[in-house]
Structures are given as structure tokens and as C-alpha cells.
Amino acid sequence: MASSMPLVSQIVEADGKLLLDGGTSDSVPLLHSMLTGASKHIVVLTQAAGYKKKPNKLMALMRQRYADYPYYLDRLQYRHYEYNRLYRWIEREQAAGRIFVIRPPEPVTVSSMEHDTNKLLALYEQGLAAAAQAWPKLQEYLAG
User: Fold this and answer.
1) What is the mean pLDDT of residues 45-72?
2) pTM of the model
3) Is residue 42 classed as helix, strand or coil in its secondary structure?
4) Where residue 3 falls among pLDDT bands split at 50, 70, 90?
5) Does residue 43 contact residue 101 with C-beta atoms inside 8 Å?
6) DSSP states along 65-128
7) Phi first, then psi: what are they for 100, rounded to 5°?
8) Could you give the 3-state DSSP secondary structure of residue 43?
9) Are strands 100-102 and 42-44 parallel, antiparallel or unpaired?
10) Which of 15, 101, 109, 125 is the most buried (most CB within 10 A)?
11) Helix orientation angle between 70-77 and 79-95, rounded to the nearest 10 degrees
12) Please, what is the average pLDDT of the chain?
């Protein structure tokens, strides 16, 4: 289970700070990668092109659970806007050849809380196939 799933993940303490996975604030840290000066950027996405994140239906529960963390709640409430904006930017960067993207070719129908091992294995195999298909173009991107 991904630790970036609010309500499921646990707050942990490290060096006197309370932490949650940063995925809720920065789903794909591409800008950070670019700011480090790296010349090549490989982005592996978990959703097919055209996916649009919707507002979180569990915000009322999150407001209760994270009442002491108003900035985190703010990020959660507007996450779908940021996520969708980020994905549009990723598409533009990919089209311009500045990044390389690997993503599922078809919409993912497996839920984030899936327990059916057959469905999970099929999704895993779909990911392997997408990576294998992208391999030649990835080699070209890295060589260029």
C-alpha cells in the first residue's frame, strides 16, 4: 500500500518532525528534478494519457483526521487541480522532447485498494510490457 494515501498512511516522526509522504503535495517531482540541473528526466506515470483526477470525496473525513494540519488540508483539498495541471505540463514537456514518459497505454481499472492478486499481477505485467515497448525510444532519448 502506498504511503501517500491520506487516511491510510500513518504520520511518522523523524528528527523531531511529523511527516507524511510527499506524494500528496508533489505527485511527480519533475520540477525539482529540473531544478537540480539534471539534463535528462524520465517520468513513470501510473495513469494513461487523458486521466483527470477528481476532487477527493473523503475531504470531510480528512478535515477531521488532519484538523491540526491546516496547510496539509489545503494541499489535499486542491490536489486535483495541481495534479491535473502537472499532467498537462508533463504532456507539453514530453511533446517538446525535454522529458521521457512511460505510462500505461490504457486506462487503469485497478483501484488503489485492490486486493485481487490476479488483477494486480495483470497490472504489473501491463507495466512491464509498457516499459519494454518504450525501451528503444528511451535508449534514443538517453543517447541524444
Assistant:
1) 94
2) 0.85
3) strand
4) low
5) yes
6) HTTT-HHHHHHHHTHHHHHHHHHHHHHHHHHTTSSEEE--SS---S-TT---HHHHHHHHHHHH
7) -115, 130
8) strand
9) parallel
10) 101
11) 60
12) 92
CA dist 116 → 33, 89, 112, 113, 122 (Å): 35, 34, 11, 9, 10
Secondary structure E strands in the chain: 12-14, 17-19, 42-44, 100-102
Give the DSSP letter string of 6-22.
Answer: TTTSPPEEETTEEE--G
What the block records as the C-alpha cell of 125 is 505485467
Grid cell listed for 27: 505527485
Amino acid occupying residue 136: P
Grid cell locating 120: 494486480
Residue 54 sits at φ, ψ, to 5 deg, of: -105, 165
End-to-end CA distance of the chain: 37
Contact 130/103 with Cβ under 8 angstroms? yes
| Kind and range of the H or E run holding 59 | helix 59-65
Residues 6+ apart with CB under 8 A from 87: 45, 47, 51
Q: Looking at residue 39, what is its pLDDT? A: 93
The pLDDT tens digits for 4-18 are 678 888 888 999 998
d(CA 118, CA 112) in angstroms, rounded, equals 14
* Number of Cβ atoms within 10 Å of the Cβ of 33: 15
